[in-house]
Specification:
By secondary structure, this protein is an alpha/beta fold. Strands 6-9-10-3-11-12 form a 6-stranded mixed sheet, with helices on both faces. A 4-stranded antiparallel sheet has the order 2-1-4-5. The longest helix is centred in the middle third of the chain and has 25 residues, at 141-165. The chain has helices spanning 56-63, 86-92, 113-124, 141-165, 182-194, 212-229, 240-246, 264-269, 274-281, and strands spanning 4-14, 29-40, 45-49, 71-76, 79-80, 96-99, 126-129, 132-135, 200-204, 232-237, 249-254, 257-263. It is globular and about 55 Å long. Helix 3 (113-124) crosses helix 4 (141-165). It is built from 9 helices and 12 strands.
Amino acid sequence: MPLLEIRNLTKVYPQGESLFGGKPRSSGEVRAVDDVSLDIQASETLGLVGESGSGKSTLGRLILRLIEPTAGGIRFEGRDLLAASAGEMRRLRRGMQIIFQDPFASLDPRFRVEDIIAEPLIIHGNTTIRGENTETEGAPPFAVFARRGTARAGRRTRVVELLRAVGLDESILHRFPHEFSGGQRQRIGIARALALHPKFIVADEPVSALDVSVGAQIVNLLAQLQREFGLTYLFISHSMPVVRYLSTRIAVMYRGKIVEVGEAEQIAKRPQHPYTKSLLEATPEVAV
């Protein structure tokens, strides 16, 4: 069974919809995601590539139910996400996380690094101390009180572990996001995404806002973390070389539709769809 199954997923927006909730200024609709079906296997990286406006990020957010689809189905580990209640989605989201494109906008500037990374642990009442799971969510008051000190110490331990996993150290725990470079901020965002031991991560153009050399370091970090933790990625990018390097398979998206899916090398060397061919032709050759 695939880890994630997407069937006929569609997201339609009224054309010209007012930002203030008024009636559309013109008739018609925009199909941001149009009848998309995909399977993602456990521990693989599916690269999703296409130009800006093709619907890539919308698809990633639909999968996590950060926005609601107009039609279609999503199953995660066999569970129907669209039929899940708010409480069920809260539990399921422990296994599904996202790394955002802009590492500065995605971090609360008022929070210190320790608070940013520990926030998922606090929200979900979950922390891990040396492999032992400690749950406080739903526990009786006396149990929560008894565990409070242990949970706080466990969160600090977990945050330090996560920082080390992404190449940072505990000396930055009390610093704020504005004190870091873009690459360091993205590492903090990755550490936050790993906090609850997720199985599946949507990486939404995580290197597009970074310098090429820094972006390469982040891509290598993602590959290392995948090997270490057995992660599954939906890696979204407009860069075919980056997607080809990291991905097991590639899905090409054009105007809301998936126009081609295949093994990464097959897509790169023997593309079938004209749009895929144009993407490859538009990729500059790097002189060695």
